[in-house]
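Limitations

Structures in this collection are predictions, not experimental determinations, and the ligand pose is part of the prediction. Treat each record accordingly. The example that follows, with LLP as the small molecule, is included so readers can see exactly what is and is not provided: the inputs are given verbatim, and the output is the predicted complex.
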Amino acid sequence: METLRIGGVDCRSLADEFGTPLYVYDEAKIMKQADDAVLNFSSDKFDTEVVYASKAFSSVALFKLLAAQGIGFDVVSGGELYCAMKAGVGMDKVYFHGNNKSDQEIEMALDAGIGYFVIDNVMECNRLVGLAEKRKRSTKVLLRINPGISAHTHEYIMTSKPDSKFGIYIENKEHIYNVIDTLKESPYIRLAGFHSHIGSQIIDAESFEKALGTMIEFLAEMKRSKGLDNLELSIGGGFGIKYVAEDDPVPLGQMCANLVRYAEEALKKSGVTISKLITEPGRAMVGEAGYTIYTIGDMKKSGDKNYIFVDGGMSDNIRHALYDAEYTCVLPEKFSKESQISYCIAGKNCESGDILIADIMLPEAETGDLLTIYSTGAYGYSMASNYNRLGRPAVVFARDGKARLIIKRETYEDQYRLEV
Ligand code: LLP
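Predicted complex:
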């Protein structure tokens, strides 16, 4: 029977063995993205580093897989750092982001000996300097600059508007110089370079080139005004992936190669050098490799709408409710049947907005059928919640016809173990 296989394993076997809802990753697809990024993000003019933005999906198994490919890790909390520590990844390749790191998180990261803090604002800089002195720990810093580039994406995931909560706006020289001067005085902290990130799920390459061009001009200005040269430059992540047929993103490897070439040329023109170029893809590394398998429960017709209710919902994928995100799905066991009915795929959470796909043509569905949504590998599990006390689904890696459990399904007891 023609069916959907993920990593060589058919959806029914996965559902029977691990239950539903279930997140499944095609491990080979993740490896391919990692390989493509590392191979193509390289230059003979400067060092390069690919860093995985782990907010997209963090797990010990994934970290181990990516670390083996030479990839670094962007973490934004003590929790994500803890995951990196548990996975035993090289701490020198860890970048700690975030606009409000607590003292406790900063101390944890200093003690762990991470490679870089990405400083977001002046207050954080002062706190970091004080804590590093107190603990006598050295570290490197990138300063996050908001280059003010507006890219076409959902407002909630745009990060580069002048009034964004992230980074220091590029025109705010007072704050930028304040950080540079403070770090010059610190015996423990070295300003290694600058960072920018303009948003997420950005399909057009132009926005990235604009941001890169702006940051290189900024480096030239820092060379003139502050004598800084040969620093490191991180250009963030945000590369779009394919969710529905109309999406046509530039493949990650090609995007990486284009950005490096673009940087080489822009640097040559502006007369500055960098020691390292860094990129931080999250979504593009794991998004398309991930699938969610659900079981169809009840169904109903309401007005013109044909509802399919699945055994998960916004608690395992909040992206449609939050960003109007679109997805594609199939009935894996009715793969070759004609799609003739328009369905609305809704979850079982107690909220009208608990919709996964607003409108999709499928073959006639029945209770008990499996339904698999594509491209749920990024910001699915990592944004999952226990709304309505639904347990988070299990996560499986599938490869060469074999599946292995990497995160167990959350039980009622797991949820109640925190109650006192
Ligand atoms: N670097 C920084 C500093 C970031 O803030 C982010 C994402 C990334 C890298 C990775 O971006 P990516 O390559 O994954 O697009 N929850 C939203 C996405 C929020 C992204 C936040 N920052 C969603 O589900 O679409």
